[in-house]
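Section 3.1: Structural characterization of target chains.
Under the original work plan, the team committed to producing a structural model for every single-chain target entering the pipeline before any wet-lab resources were allocated. The record below documents one such target. The sequence was received from the expression subgroup and is listed exactly as submitted; it comprises 157 residues.
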Amino acid sequence: MPKSPAFLAKRLRSEGEKTTAFFAGLDEADWNQTVYTEGGEWTIRNVLVHFVTAEQAFLKLFPSIIDGGEGVSKDFDLDRYNARQQEKAQKLSPQELLVQFQDIRIKMAAWAETLSAEDLQKEGRHPFLEETRVEEMIKLVYRHNQIHYRDIRKSIE
């Protein structure tokens, strides 16, 4: 059953609050804890960079699809994009990243509330899901965090 823009915005906010609380509760040493080793080492800090930069990109991509754009190009290289974003954010502290995450999530939820049911059914190419509806793209924003959050929890237990 399709979700409403209000439902999606509420979910984005609640999951964003959970994510913020989790990261805010980390000790200094936790930020360097390795979460992933495949395709390069990613620490908890790297995962937060990923959350911020992905959502910043989505706030450009999703509206472009609503406006009739196709989405990402067919030859989009997700791994290369993620690596570049990690390099760009090297100098940001975990606290600066957390502020950026909170800001971008507020903007994402506010944008989602402006959509119509018809907007949610528009289709475009997502970097991971490929061709899909905007509704599914928005759901993946908070589900994406949940997946990485589970992996982070495993790495620090």
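The chain has a mean pLDDT of 94.
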